[in-house]
Amino acid sequence: MGKKLKIAGAPISWGVCEAPGWGHQMGPNRVLKEMSELGLGATEFGPAGFLPAAAEERAKVLKALHMEAIGGFFPIVIHREDHDPLPEVLEELKSYKATGAYELVLAANTGLDGYDTKRPELDDAGWQRMFTNLNRIREACDAQGVDAVLHPHVGTMVETLDDVMRVVKGSNIKFCLDTGHMFIGGTDPVEFSERHSDRVAHVHMKDVNAKQAEKVRSGQITYYEGVCNSLYMPLGQGDIDMKQIVINLVVKAGYDGWFVLEQDLTIQSEPAPGTGPIESARQSVAFLRAIEAEL
Predict the structure, then answer these.
(1) Would you give the end-to-end CA distance of the chain in angstroms?
(2) pTM for this structure?
(3) How wide is the angle at C-alpha 219 spanned by C-alphas 216 and 225, nearest 5°?
(4) CA 218 vs CA 92, 186, 213: distances in Å
(5) C-alpha span between 238 and 292 (Å, rounded)
């Protein structure tokens, strides 16, 4: 009997994003039903406004669509001296209690709009403030039975290899291994999955077109332009060894958490039924199930 992979969906794979002006935003009924059609029984929450803000209403929507709540991406400012992030976290955790969710996926927000603005530079005191806040958030989440993980992300305060390694050494927070954002930021996700598997508590699966990633990394194009031009590919069709990441985590390290399909994309209008983002997601699910069959 082989190992069973826990595969979930994320609304961004259907173009649903928190960034202003991202494109057409599909509604939860269609997105979650299409996830279900692909055999995905669990989802991340998506950005503010995708699901109801009120915790009990959010729980009702997910229950009606037979969808388990994992948790979700939560951009938050954690580096500024004049801002305490903990009240926002505790407010967000109300929806976790109501829905049974358990993964708070933090991103170290710059405090600026979008992912293509120049981020602030941190001095040593700023980094220490971030580490302290990450540890505080982890402890508050632990007390409520929720795992807090940090998601390195293009255009945030934790983006580059140097940023990632600072957090590895300076904080006890665990990570969401986002294969795409780490790759674009200069961290080898295959190597990270092998050398730091003990710090991986959640996984976002993205395959990447390396040529487009280099254009984003060098500033030749913006992140948004990259996403609009096939920066992310269905799993197995890009330049990351996705199979080796699964092997490193599941076979070598005993990881039993979620592999979340999180292929950022943009759409400009509502797709015809049976078309659109579901097509790429279907290919990615098939790729992971083929790996699963070999484990």
Answers:
(1) 9
(2) 0.95
(3) 50
(4) 35, 11, 9
(5) 19
Q: Which residue has the tokens 């209690």?
A: 97
CATH number for 269: 3.20.20.150
CB 231 within 8 A of CB 212: yes
Residue 186 tokens read as 């200069």
Beta pairing partners, 68: 42
Give the pLDDT confidence of 19-78 residue by residue, as tens digits. 889 999 999 999 999 999 999 989 999 998 899 988 889 889 998 888 999 999 999 999
pLDDT tens, position by position, 4-13:
999 999 999 9
User: What is the SS3 assignment for 161?
Assistant: helix
* 283 half-sphere exposure, CB direction, 13 A CA radius: 16
Rg over alpha carbons for the chain, rounded to the nearest Å, is 18
Length of the chain: 295
Tell me whether residue 48 is in a domain: yes
Can you give the residue range of the structural domain that contains 208?
Answer: 6-294
Which amino acid is located at 115 in the chain?
A: Y
